[in-house]
Amino acid sequence: MSRLFEPLTLGSLRLANRIVIAPMCQYSARDGEAGDWHLIHLGHLALSGAGLMILEATAVSPEGRISPQDLGLYSDADEAALARVLKAVRAHSPMPVSIQLSHAGRKASSRPPWDGGAQIRPDEPDGWKTEAPSPVPHSPEEDPPLELDRAGLERVRGRFVRATERAARLGLDGIEIHGAHGYLLHQFLSPIANKRTDEYGGSLENRMRFPLEVYDAVRAAFPAEKPVWMRISATDWVPGGWDIEGTVALSKALKARGCAAIHVTTGGVSPEQAIKLGPGYQVPYARRVKAEVGLPTVAVGLITEPEQAEAIIADGEADAVSLARAMLYDPRWPWHAAAKLGARVSAPKQYWRSQPREYKDLFEAVSFGQR
Ligand SMILES: Cc1cc2nc3c(=O)[nH]c(=O)nc-3n(C[C@H](O)[C@H](O)[C@H](O)COP(=O)(O)O)c2cc1C
């Protein structure tokens, strides 16, 4: 029996298996609104048989977008556009859909990767002044962000709450708060980006304060039975930066507040990061969080092979795996994994006839006949 294909429960949400589609920015929205690209992209990923889909980093305010083309959930038009996409996805897929809510902080106002990914300075067309814990730019040559004052913090928290209310109205099945990859909440956690001297900077407790306040506010605004969790970078890969000890402390604080899981990634806060890349390179961090905190953990990063994913679950290193690039490259990855591991997977009835002869029992609930 495959462990990867065993169900997993997050709060009251049941995942049919432990394969998660990682959040992936598409830089293809207009004024935050999802369009036909999202319908096609999410539509075909929703047919993949994965246990859960996490929608891309979705900005809670216009200035919280990484790029001007980011998906957003800050206006009635954004909500209506996403409702259209979700309606189509749900009509054809039983897969639960969650959303990653995000604010990019000092990494906002950037060009999409295919246009180079550089900062768009506030005086350039489409650019804006960014905001962050401290007026320290991501790279020394960049335009520095404005330091968020008390009113600014309250405003950002309020934006997370409004977006959460919209996510609840859209019937989304869970919320992942983006606390990773050098975006706003990670900027509060990391001493590299957070130079504050008030109660939001300095000690570990102070640096965790704003991310925990945002968690509390989101949790309170989302239906109690549905899960809320956080994605955390477990290390900055820079000496003196945010690290695994802080990650464990934050995860314990989140657990005490009812957080459903931790999605363990790394890096993103500094261009000086020295990442040690390799297959499953972030899995040891997920293992530490799972062992020391006891919350369900999702491991991510260069998990590409079914046997590798199976071993991560079977060895108790994480409770689920999430895949990004491998899912784009092969959107039927969960079908192929199920075939290799002798498991079963849900597929749309329109595709049942594609079941290979050698995998007679691959698709669940198959029946067909013809005259
Ligand atoms: C196209 C693309 C877009 C991404 N966008 C996001 C995002 O919106 N939010 C996020 O937390 N990570 C994002 N990531 C990072 C992935 O979620 C994942 O952590 C990373 O790619 C490592 O996993 P992989 O080796 O399976 O690709 C993105 C990655 C890719 C390739």
The radius of gyration over CA amounts to 20 Å
Shape, per Cα inertia axes: globular
Strand order of the largest sheet: 3-4-5-8-9-10-11-12
Q: Structural class, from helix and strand content?
A: alpha/beta
Q: Helical stretch count?
A: 10
For the sheet with most strands, the description reads:
8 strands, parallel, barrel
Q: Show unreliable segments.
A: none
Fold topology:
Layout: E1 8-10, E2 13-15, E3 19-21, H1 36-45, E4 52-59, H2 76-92, E5 97-102, E6 131-132, E7 146-147, H3 150-169, E8 174-179, H4 184-189, H5 204-221, E9 228-233, H6 244-256, E10 262-265, H7 283-293, E11 297-300, H8 306-314, E12 320-323, H9 325-329, H10 333-341
Parallel strand pairs: 3-4, 3-12, 4-5, 5-8, 6-7, 8-9, 9-10, 10-11, 11-12
Antiparallel strand pairs: 1-2
Helix pairs in contact: 1-2, 3-5, 5-6, 6-7
Bound molecules: flavin mononucleotide.
Write a concise synopsis of the structure shown.
It contains ten helices and twelve strands. The protein has helices at 36-45, 76-92, 150-169, 184-189, 204-221, 244-256, 283-293, 306-314, 325-329, 333-341, and strands spanning 8-10, 13-15, 19-21, 52-59, 97-102, 131-132, 146-147, 174-179, 228-233, 262-265, 297-300, 320-323.
